[in-house]
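Contributing new complexes? Match this layout with protoporphyrin IX containing FE.
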Amino acid sequence: MSQNRLQDFSMLDPIVSSNPFDFYALLHREAPVYKIPETGTYVITKYQDLKQVLKDYKSFSNDVKVADQSPFPGLHQSVLREGGGWEHVQTLQRTDPPKHDRYRALVDRVFSIRRVRAMIPHLENVVNDLIDKFIDNGECDFSKQFAMAMPGIIVAEQLGLEHNKVSTFKKWADAMLGASYSPTATAAEIRRDAKTELEAQKFLADVFEDRRVNPREDLISAMVNAYIDDERPLDINELQNVVRQLITGGFETTQSAINHGMWVLIRMPELVAQLRADTSLVKPFVEEVLRWESPVQFLMRQATRDVKISDTLIPAGALVMVGYGPANRDGEKFVCPHEFDLRRKNVGAHLAFGSGPHFCPGALLARQEMASSFEAIIRRMDNFQLLKPLPCPVHKFSMFFMPMHEFCIKFDKC
Ligand code: HEM
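Output block (do not edit by hand):
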C-alpha cells in the first residue's frame, strides 16, 4: 500500500471504482482535494471539507451545467423531445435555495417521522412476504428477490404506482440513471435508455392527470395538487423531474445498502450471532453499513466562484465531485476507518445521506427499511454464504454509486 502512488490509480478504472478504499486512503494522505487528470474535475475526500462544501451552496451549486457527462451531449434529451416526452428541467436535487425550498417542502411532507413510524408494520409485512417466497429453497438471488424488490415496492406504493411490476419500475430507474451519466456510453445505449425513460414519462403523465381529478393519499396526488404560498402548481416538466428523482433516489441506493449489509454478514459471520443475541445492535449495524460501503460514493457540484478548500484553490466554473464514500472512511473522523465496528462511539455520524439543504429526505424511510429487513433476516435465516463467487470487479462501473453485478446467496432456515 505504502509504495502505491496516485498516478497508479484512475477513477475511470472499473477495478478502482469497485474497491476504491486503498485509493481513498492515499488521497487522504496526499491529495485531500484531488484533481482528476483525465477530466479536470476536483474531488472532495475529507469529512470536514465535505461538510463545508455541502453547506456552502452559494459557492458550490447543485445547478450543475454539465450534468450530461455522456460523449453525446443532448442525445438523451432529443430522443425524449422527438418521442413526445418531456425534456429534463432542473428541480429539487439540481436546484439551490431558495428555488430548492419549494420542491423540498413538498417532498418533506411525505417523508415525515410520523408517516415513517406508521409504515413500520407494513414494512415488516413486505419484508416477511418476500422472505416467504424463497426461504424454503435455502438459496436466492438476494439482490433481485429481496434487496431490489423491497425498496421498489415501497417507493412504488409511496408514489401511488403500486400496480406496476417492480421489474418495470427497476427498468425505468436503471434507464433514468443509465447511459447518459456514463462517460463511456455508446450512442445506441443512450438511445435505448432514453426510450425506456420515454415509456415511463408517458405512463406517469397519465397518472398525473388521473390524480388531478381523483386525488388519493399518495405523493403524486400531493404534488399535482400542491399550491404552496399561492404559487402556481408544478408544471408537467417539473412533475416529471421530481418523480424521476424519487424513483431513482430511493431505489438503487436502498438496494445497494441492503445488498452490502448482507455481504457484511457473509464476510463477518460472527456478527450474525451478535445481532441475534442483542437486536438493539441492528440500528448501529445499519449505520455502519451505510458508512463503510456508502451506496452514494459521489455526486456533483459546480463552483460558482474561486474557493480554497484544504489549501487547494478550486476555480469558478470547476466541476466538483463531493465524496460521501471517501469522507466516511476519513481516519480523522472515524477511528480505524477501514474496520467495520458496530460499537464505534460515533456510529451514525457518517455522511451517507449527505448534509445541508439536500440532506436525503428519504433517510428515515431508508433506515427503517434496512432495520426491518435485517431484523427479519437474522430472525429467520442463518449461516449466510455466497452461492457462487462474486465476479471481479464486484460492482458495475459507476462514477457515483456501487451497484453489484449480481448477488446470489445460500443460507439455513432457522
Ligand atoms: C440507503 C438509501 C439512501 C441513500 C444512501 C441516499 C443518499 C442520498 C444522498 C447522499 C443525498 C444528497 C444529495 C446531495 O447532496 O446533493 C440524497 C438526496 C436525495 N434522496 Fe436519498 N438516499 C437514500 C434513500 C432515499 C429514499 C428511500 C428516497 C425516497 C424515496 C430518496 C430520495 C432522495 C431525494 C429526492 C434526494 C434529493 C433531495 C434534495 O436535493 O433536496 N433517497 N440521498
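Reviewers usually confirm one structural detail per submission. For this one: Residues 54, 62, 92-93, 104, 107, 155, 245-246, 249-250, 253-254, 257, 295-296, 299, 324, 352-354, 358, 360-362, 365-366 surround protoporphyrin IX containing FE (CB under 6 Å).
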